[in-house]
Each structure stands twice: as C-alpha cells, then as structure tokens.
Amino acid sequence: MLNRFQFSRLRPRRRQSTPAQESQAKAPARVVCIASGKGGTGKSVMASNLAVARTRMGEKVLLVDFDAGLANAHLLLGLAPDYDLGHVMEGRVSARDALVEGPLGLRLLSGGVGRDALINPTRRELDRLFKALRPMEEEFDLIIIDHGAGMGYSTVAHLAATSTLILVTNHEVTALSDGYALYKRAMMVNKTLRVGLVVNRAPDERLAQAARERFCAASQRFLGLQPEFIGWVPADPAVGHSVQSRVPAIMHAPESPAAKAISAIAKWTPLDHARTTSAFYERARKALR
Ligand SMILES: Nc1ncnc2c1ncn2[C@@H]1O[C@H](COP(=O)(O)OP(=O)(O)OP(=O)(O)O)[C@@H](O)[C@H]1O
Ligand SMILES: [Mg+2]
After folding, report:
1. Which domains does the chain show, CATH number per domain?
2. Does 67 contact ligand 1 (Cβ within 6 A)?
C-alpha cells in the first residue's frame, strides 16, 4: 500500500509553461449549431456535408448528432456506431470512447435511435452529458452540432452557449415561419449570437432569394435585426442519391449543384472564429440552471 507521499510522487507533475508554450497550446474547439424550426429542412444533410467539407479543409472535426433519440447522421455517413450520446449520458462510456471514425477521418458522436432517455432527458441528465462532453473541446478544432427540429430545452441550452448558429430553412412559408420563431428565441437567449441563414432545397434562385427577403424583412421589422444570408442550396436529386448510398453529397457527387453550394457555405468566415470566451459546454450547463 502506498502512503500519501509515495502516491503523490506517482502522479504526473504539472509543469510550469512559459508564455510562448501557452500560446502554442491548442485553443478550445469552435462550436457551430445547426438548427431549424420545422423538421426535415435538411439540417442533417447540411451538418454531415459541412463536417466533411471542413475536414477536407484540414480541420479536426467532431459531428455531434444531437437529434437525440432520432439520430440519423450515422446513416448519412455510412456508419454503424456501437455507442451513442445515451451511453455517454448514462456514464457507460466516455465521450472519447463513444466516437466513431467517419469519412476522411472526421469523428461522429451519434445520437442514438429510439432511446427514451435521450428523447426526454431531465436537466440533471443533460448536465451530466454536457459535463462528459466538455473534454471534446480540447481534442477538436471544430464541433458541429446537428439538432432536432424545434426549440426543445436541450436545443435552447446549446443556442444560449454557442457563438454561431446555422439556421436551415426551406422556401415554403411554413418553414420560414417556424425558422423565424427559432431565430427569435435564439436571439432572446443569446444576444451576441451570430446567425447564418441557409435556404435549402429551393426550386430555383428566385424562390430562394424571395424566401431570404421575406425572412430578413420580418426579422428586421419585429426584432430590429436579421440573420446573415450565407447561401441557398438547390433541390437536387444528387442529395437523394447520396442519402441512398450513405455517402455525403460533396463526396458522392462533388460537381452537383447542391454539393457546390454546400462547399461554398463551408467557407462562411464566422466558422473560423466560432469560439466563446469560456468553455462551450460550461456555458451550456449554466444555461440549464
Ligand atoms: N438540397 C436538397 N435537395 C434534395 N433533397 C434534399 C436536399 N436537402 C435535403 N434533402 C432531402 O431531405 C431529406 C431530409 O433531410 P434531413 O434529414 O437533412 O433533414 P433534417 O432537417 O435533418 O430533418 P429532421 O428535422 O427530421 O432532423 C433527406 O433525406 C434528403 O433526401
Ligand atoms: Mg436531422
């Protein structure tokens, strides 16, 4: 049996680092949330393709499928994870051990399918999960979080904590109306949030621009602010084919109009700066209180 003195000698000593070494230490991950008001607007397609695009740009990317309980990012990436957020929440595995490797080496933390605990987690369970995810911020350059539709409190906690949101809508009035509601809620809980608007699955540019104008005019009129329009993605059969083949469109059909549009969205400058002053998951935990 080791006495206290011997035990403390076995523990690694924390070395004093010089200011130069500290500036070289890896900065915590940037975090971007992908959300929508209405379901089925194309968040998971967007999130999985953005994850591939940013990995291709040389970043270490983690995609977290927070459509917890109804996850499908693993399908879009052709993966079959052994573990998911539910296992992490229950403390059965660490977040690191729950990761699965995807295309080009990106990592996915799956959301689990049909797990009740994940569909309706208590605040305490979510708090435990956020705490368990915190170490991921030290390991990745960029964390992309794919949310379920709407404004569940887990989504709202993320929106309160993140610096950057990509709001995915379609051009139809129902999607725009629900998207506006989400935007309003997001700006209520996080006044400094940077929001990029994407009109996905648009039949043509005219309808995409009309949708943008409608969204931005309503936001400006009622909230006195508006999101930044970062692009539109055409309705493109290549996306459906890529979903069927379980390979993201920007790999499956890189020359398709949708893939090109998503590649351009991946270069949105705020993604290079999407960092909060304090740890993202600490902020998310605070937002739960
Ligand atoms: N630009 C596009 N062109 C054609 N089809 C698309 C496009 N974007 C998405 N889709 C189709 O829409 C379907 C739904 O997309 P996706 O799963 O990404 O939506 P979602 O917003 O994540 O849905 P949910 O709210 O259920 O999470 C996909 O299976 C895909 O085939
Ligand atoms: Mg989805």
Report:
1. 31-288 (3.40.50.300)
2. yes
